[in-house]
Structures are given as C-alpha cells and as structure tokens.
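Example 3.2
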Amino acid sequence: MASVFQRCCDRRDETRQNVEQEYPFTPREAVTRMTALSLTPLMITNLILGLLLTVMTLLFIFRIVLTWYPQVEMEKMPFRLAIVPTEPFLAPTRKLVPPLGGVDISPIIWVGLFSLIREVLLGQQGLLTMLAR
C-alpha cells in the first residue's frame, strides 16, 4: 500500500518539475507580464471605443422600447439617463426622417449606424483590430 502511495507522490513531483521547467513563472507572474506587455494605447482605445459604442447602442434600444410607451414621463430619473445622451442624435434625425405611421424610427436608424461603426472599427476584421495585430 505504501508503495502505491509513494509512486503517486513521485509522479506528482515529476509533473510539478516538468511544469516548472516548461513554465518558469507562477500563474500570477505570467498574467502580470502578459497584461503589462499587451496593454498598448491602441488596445486601450479599442476597449474604450467598444464600450462607448455598446453603451450607446443599448441606450438607443432602450429608446426604441420607450417609444412603445408614450405615457411614460421622460423627465423622470431612470428614463432621463437614456434621454440625455441620445437626444442630440435623435433630434436632427427626426427632422430628416419623419415618423412612419406614427412610429419614430430614428432610434432604429442610430442602432444600425452605431452597430455598423462598431463592426467597421472593432469587428474581427475592423480597422482598429487590424492595426492592433
């Protein structure tokens, strides 16, 4: 019985030595080194721009949902968080594209535009993604 236990411990020690030879860093050191090396200004720009475009797209989708409920008071606080950043985009668009059948389609237009911009800049073959490689 002791020999089986001893063989198991020896095998574990061998595996540990092989891993230490192959990977000279601890996992924490490896993550620290990878993070320090890979955060370039372009990658930070990609992260910030991606976050901004995603948040704006979600806010426009929220505005689309709000158009289904015309009785909602837009000046109240939770709704105001979606109104303030999106209204500067929607107001000029409403002048160019009037509502169709009483439905305001300007948020739909902006969801499409922001999605297109995000894909062109940050998609798998986006401009900023290709520059970062």
